[in-house]
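Ligand: zinc ion. Inputs:
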Amino acid sequence: MRVAVAGLEYEGNSLSLRIERRADFERMGIFEGAALLGAAAGKQLALAGAIETLLAGGAALRPIYWTKGGAGGHVEDAFFAEAMARIVEGIADAGPLEGVYLAMHGAMICAVEKDPEGAVLAALRARIGPRVPIAVSLDLHAHVTPRMAAAADIIVGYETYPHVDAHRTGARAAALLLRAMRGEIRPVTRIRKYNAILPVLGGATDAGAPMAAVAAAARAIEAAGHALSVSYFPVQPWLDMADVGITGLAVTDGDAAAAEGVAQTILDAMWTRRHAFELPAMTPDQAVRAALLREGRVLLVDAPDSIGGGASGDSPALLAALLAQAPQVESALCLVDPAAVQRAASSGEGAEARFELGAWQDRRWFAPVPVTARVERLCDGLFTYRGGPVAGATGRLGPSAVLRAGGVRILATTHAVYEHLDEHYAACGIDIGACRLVSFKNLMNYRKLLGPGTSFIALDGPGATPLRLQDVAWKQRRRPFWPADDTPEPPPLPASA
Ligand SMILES: [Zn+2]
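Predicted complex:
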């Protein structure tokens, strides 16, 4: 059983000014041929789970091409075209195949191509014909399109957020692929969609959260034998396209009508809980003041500037609040600002200098904040992820500087990098255990740091990843949609190609 293995993972954001180019993907790694197997080995990636499962099932692998680029704005069309050609032509040229597995995020966007995963899958299907089964693993925030569902036989999404099950998701997709290749099942995938988007911050699958009930419903349907796999996609909400909305998906054994029914059931499980996804949030000034009234350490979640959601990571809104409300309180904050890093490097460690911090790339909402700070440390910005799907991989902040103004320590970095826990702070010499206030620019991983003595406050406000989705000046999104409109009947989106 010869199986081609490939992947293209990236999460886009229409509101972000970031443009990801080849160099940005190269920082995380672009792997071709056998190098792909080495890159996946020992990792908690979906790709790794699939590879291990396929090998255990006796498959002979044809590794083709894989890259995983994190989150940002648009991917340059030229790089996407190159990656797509490598994947589609590489698989088509790999000789006779019995199956194909692809690791994808599912929410990539390019300047021109708004459904890159659908384009890859459709082109691949056209090249290899209808008989070779294609299995795909996706992130839970995928924007699943009818074109994707039509071209793939098997689609399986992450079950958890925080994403702790990427490896298992790849393994599940591969296990279904093996069964299809052996002729044990004839998988069909169907989706159902509503014109609704949900705040990412409220989308945890932890006990008690609305998505936990949706996840439980999906697992119960699988356990009852009504579907081979059930997935739910609350979707990356900051995509300004008319066809973006929450999606239910089911894979059944040859029964398209049953797959549609199950997809509809799980979609409705999200829709009926839509109000519960909204969490309280505060302006940066309110948040800092409220945090100082609490015992213990408080994590300030800079939700509107979430690098994990594709934002620039350069909003100085919280910095301004810390300097105004808590200038002597020990705190740590991370900010993308290559110009500040360069100024710190030319000043030298121990020097004091005047900085204009933040709004380095994105000045739509904020201006740089003037700060006199001491250059505490210069560092290379390399760290190792201790958990999550990329555990063990190297994070590259680029040249970075730790600046101190009173009690406020600012980690200025060159690149916007997905943060997991505090690996990035620790690598640059900041011990968050000694801080009363610590800022994070992700929407979920910070939860792994919560516990006795550590609470969090989410920030509200403008940015490329705002909480209030109804306030965004959408250009392409059509009314009515949730949460701008609360219609008695859910507004549907097309589910077939
Ligand atoms: Zn995700």
